[in-house]
Amino acid sequence: xxxxxxANNQAITSPWRMSVAPMLDWTDRHCRYLHRLLSQHTLLYxxxxxxxxxxxxxxxxxxxxxxxxxxxxxQLGGSEPADLAKAxxxxxxxxxxxxxxxCGCPSERVQRGAFGACLMREADLVADGVKAMRDVVDIAxxxxxxxxxxxxxxxxxxxxFVGTVADAGCNVFIVHxxxxxxxxxxxxxxxxxxxxxxxxxxxxxRDFPHLTIAINGGIKTDDVVQEQLQQVDGVMxxxxxxxxxxxxxxxxxxxxxxxxxxxxxxxxxxxxxxYMEREAREHGTHWYAIARHMLGLRHGLPGARRWRQVxxxxxxxxxxxxxxxxxxxxxxxxxxxx
Length: 338
Fold this sequence. Notes:
The chain is of the alpha/beta class. The chain folds into two domains: 4-256, Aldolase class I (TIM Barrel); 265-328, Four Helix Bundle (Hemerythrin (Met), subunit A) (Up-down Bundle). 41% of the residues lie in helices and 16% in strands. The strands form two sheets. Strands 3-4-5-6-7-8-9-10 form an eight-stranded parallel barrel, surrounded by six helices. A two-stranded antiparallel sheet has the order 1-2. The radius of gyration is 20 Å and the shape is globular. The protein starts with a strand and ends in a 10-residue tail after the last helix. Its cofactor is FMN. Pfam families: Dus (PF01207). Residues 20-317 form the DUS-like FMN-binding domain. FMN binds at residues 22-24, 75, 144, 176, 216-218, 238-239.
């Protein structure tokens, strides 16, 4: 992961400056390919993949990615240090740039597996897992976590968690600035109901200035990103990046010192069609499985609603992607949207 320079000639040394969050059922390799078309420098994350799935399942299905996706991090779900070490080694061998441990997911399935957010109660176990992974890989090992669990809202709880895990050699923490309520809320409700407390994440950075601290949770605009980058080292964007992916097209210029984007919506769509054709040829992937990730591409543009309807119309599944694109790009009045 290369450092860059921003428009003010200030060195940008953190690859975690801007990233797209791991999102189950969303950030698969097709979604990540789209995001990489839009931003060359943004750090991308896989969906959470459990250690069990890698040790006992179809490894290529879980770990295959497009070389264009770098920089790319593999997020693991698990709690047994030995299993985490084996899975992390697999990730490095497959070519990932980072291994991230999920200590933030609140779902019941994850809780039954004794990992995710409930690991915040077991900082020593997380530290053991981090150390086990660091012993077998040369790439970064990072942790994504919440600021607390259930009704534990004291700052000491998250401070001590970070301190314990940092002592095991973890230097990068991505902090979702909400508590995870393990009882009484669904995963969806856990993304909205527990209040955001950005001040807690800023305090972590003040208390651990030598660590890289990135913030996640509810961030939807450049103004908020800029505000947070004055407090912490990086910003991770979740659902807004998925529903409004064109936002990413500005990030290289705004946050990594790149040139103004020359991308067009039509050009990105054309590149995605070429990717769909490649996927069909090489892996037998139907374009319909890929198109779902780009339905927000024309968010806010004239004709966007009809464009989405065309790309999500199951009656067109028998057509090649290029023909669907031709139908989608022409509005009923004959005009071609941007």
